[in-house]
Amino acid sequence: MSHAIHLEHLQYRAGKHFEIPNLDLHVPSGSIYGFLGPNGSGKTTTIRLILGLLRPLSGRVTVLDLPMPDQHAQILGRVGYVPEQPHLDATLTVRELIDFQAAFYPRWDRARAEELVERFELDGEHLFGRLSKGQKAKLMILLALAQCGDLLVLDEPTDGLDPVVRRDILSALITYVSERGATIFISSHLVHELERVCDWVAVMDDGRLITEAPMEKLKQGTKRLVVMGAPAEIVNPPFRVLTRESTNGGGAGENWVVGDWEPGMTSYFEGVGASVREVIDLDLEDGFVELLRSFRKGGTGR
Amino acid sequence: MFHGIDPRSPIPLYVQIAERVRLAIATGTLGSAAPLPSVRQLAAELRINPATVIQAYKDLEAQGFVEIRHGAGTFVRELAPGRRARERSQQAGALVRKLLAEARRAGVSLPELQRALETELGAKTT
Known about the structure:
- The complex is a heterodimer.
- By secondary structure, chain A is of the alpha/beta class.
- Chain A has helices at residues 43-50, 72-76, 94-102, 110-119, 133-146, 163-180, 191-197, 215-221, 266-271, 284-296, and strands spanning 3-14, 18-28, 32-36, 58-63, 66-68, 79-82, 151-155, 183-188, 200-205, 208-214, 223-228, 240-246, 253-259, 275-281.
- Chain A folds into 2 domains: 3-215, P-loop containing nucleotide triphosphate hydrolases (Rossmann fold, 3-Layer(aba) Sandwich); 223-281.
- Chain A is elongated.
- By secondary structure, chain B is mainly alpha-helical.
- Chain B folds into 2 domains: 13-76, Arc Repressor Mutant, subunit A; 83-121.
- Chain B contains 5 helices and 2 strands; from the N terminus they run αααββαα.
- Chain B has helices at residues 13-27, 39-46, 50-62, 83-106, 110-121, and strands at 66-69, 73-76.
- Chain B has a two-stranded antiparallel ribbon with strand order 1-2.
- In chain B, strand 1 and strand 2 (73-76) form a beta hairpin.
- In chain B, helix 1 (13-27) packs across helix 3, helix 1 (13-27) crosses helix 4 and helix 2 crosses helix 3 (50-62).
- The A-B interface holds A 30, 32, 167, 170-171, 174-175, 177-179, 192, 195-199, 216, 219-220, 281-285 and B 7-10, 12-13, 39-40, 43-52.
């Protein structure tokens, strides 16, 4: 499988309080890759490392099969980027900003830019500084899409926006992907939004990658179990134990949350003299929360 | 046709989409040769990954319900007589299984469930 973004043994430190000790990431070409994590977990820092805006202490960054930062000009010409904070000149109009951006990108798609101005109902004469938050976000997406990149890197593009604007932006992204087959790397903590669109998910916390998996595998593999009569020590389970606590009612029942679960693994419990009373499906948000809880308690991580 | 598709459900989205199409074919909402929405259109409308829609359509093609004509779109196939009826009874079976699973989870006994069904239908079922 070829990768649009590949990070190997990436190490980065910012001051005393934040570091990325050793990060590996594999973003398959053509995927819509959701990058999840709470605030301060290192998502934006990772994005800045991918784009060559920060230099790692060690490790390797490969983007669109080219080494970053050595070939940053070739790479960035094919990457659309929407930063977390608007970075555009507030005193320019929408039209001026589009023309300004177009000048940097040889593959600029004038027709697409025009179509998106219409679709997003933007007024070319308005000053960027006077636009609403939603209009600013739409313009930034427009600029990233019209440059016709093979990779889009979006840092919380819909954070803090109303549902109508979020919908418009997601639809525009999906239309772009269906037409061009580009890769999208999208960071967010809006879990439900990612659950709809992403086919791969990574979860970060405290500068570390907790998991990286195809969406369906993560969703299907994370379950809550109600277990009866489990021994205190369990040896080499075929799944990953994320959390384990006794049920509120007391007695021998316990609530477990497990990862890497597959149907048929209940037989493991029978082998150790216990039984599984119930296997409960979790959605992405529940799974995400349980992964973080387990990680913070000093669980095994991945 | 795709109202109420649930991304949070443990049932993968492509399975949910294929199920909806099969149901529409079984009930005749989608007749022979009717076109399905284009991948691009449906993905944008539901705000889901285009690959998910493609997967659903491919599964439907493998099951013989639709035909993917490259460049033209995806169309409902001519179905053998009885296939729609068979598909409807399969859908009915699936609905009942779902109901039974829910009832079991809620601790509703079978006689209780049967009585409730009779009340809803306004008639004795046995």
